[in-house]
Amino acid sequence: MISYAVIYGLVCLALALGFNLWRLLKGPSIGDRILAMDTMVINTIAIILLIGIANESGSFFEAALLLAMVGFVGTVAYCKFLLRGDIIE
Amino acid sequence: MIGSISIAEIVISLMIVIGASFALIGSWGLVRLPSLMERLHGPTKATTLGLGGMLIGSLLFFQLEHGHWTTHELLISLFLFITAPISANMIAKVHLHHLRIEQANAGPAGKPTNPPSDSDWATYEAPRPITSEAPPSDDR
Using the beta-carbon criterion (under 8 Å), do B72 and A28 form an inter-chain contact? Predict the structure, then answer.
């Protein structure tokens, strides 16, 4: 039963990544693209968690944690660059 | 066949299904809503509810099926719940600056009005040096 739930979750997240990719390509403003990229990172973390459940392995969590940190830093750095023209002042 | 399904499996599957559905709805909101200020709503709820549900499902899976606690899910959810409002605030600030230079679609919310005093919103102003003096009060 859990395997069916994991398959359903993977299908949902693949569709969600498709929607995010559409928004990332269409824009129209640069803020939309940053938001789409941030959401893609979050959906990828969810996919990694589901793969960890499907493989019954706890070693996927480090990848999810690292992706959460790197995605946040990337989003904030891009916004900071657009707001201030520089990342570290 | 039905009798072999335990309560734990039902609860774990329910959390995974709820989380994945919320993630899908959040991304659909990112496509569907009219302007960036509205689009910010969808993915932030997808982060909190969708990933929260899936993290609880994963936590229960490793506890109930394998009998050992994993604390990584708690770390991931703590980090995501701290960082999601910060990144949403930064994206909203980028949107406000684009509105100010007339490049973005204002949407149903419209442009923000000016604050009541003669100053401007903090994100538009240049950083001021920190002074030890108290700011002048208006009631004199």
Answer: no
